[in-house]
Amino acid sequence: MAVPKRKVSKARRDKRRSSVWKLDAPTLVKCPQCHELTAPHKVCGTCGYYKGVQVIKKEA
Q1: What are all long-range contacts of 42-51, with beta carbons under 8 Å and residues at least 24 apart?
Q2: Rounded Cα–Cα distance for residues 32 and 44 (Å)
Q3: Residue from 31, 36, 28, 29 nearest 49 by CA
Q4: Strand, helix or coil at 2?
Q5: Cβ contacts of residue 59 below 8 Å, gap of 6+?
Q6: Which residues contact 36 (CB under 8 A, 6 or more apart)?
Q7: InterPro entries of this UniProt entry (predicted)?
């Protein structure tokens, strides 16, 4: 059975644990058409444009 040779220090243990629990804020970019915040590489939910082309028809 595998047994650790040395005790893991509190600093090393906490450094390992700290990176797992951090949350990242979602990346948001402005739509070039309507200037609303949207997720990158996705169709804008407000105006329906993607890369300057209307993909989804939205009623005004």
Answers
A1: none
A2: 10
A3: 31
A4: coil
A5: none
A6: 30, 44, 45, 46, 47
A7: Ribosomal_bL32, Ribosomal_bL32_bact, Ribosomal_zn-bd
φ/ψ (deg, to 5) at 5:
-75, -35
Q: State the first-to-last Cα distance of the chain, in angstroms, to the nearest integer.
A: 68
In order, the DSSP letters of 28-43 are -EE-TTT--EE-TTS-
Q: What is the pLDDT of residues 1-59, one digit of tens each?
A: 899 999 999 999 998 888 777 778 889 999 999 999 999 999 999 999 999 899 998 87
Residue 42, both tokens: 């996705």
What is the value of pTM for the model shown? 0.55
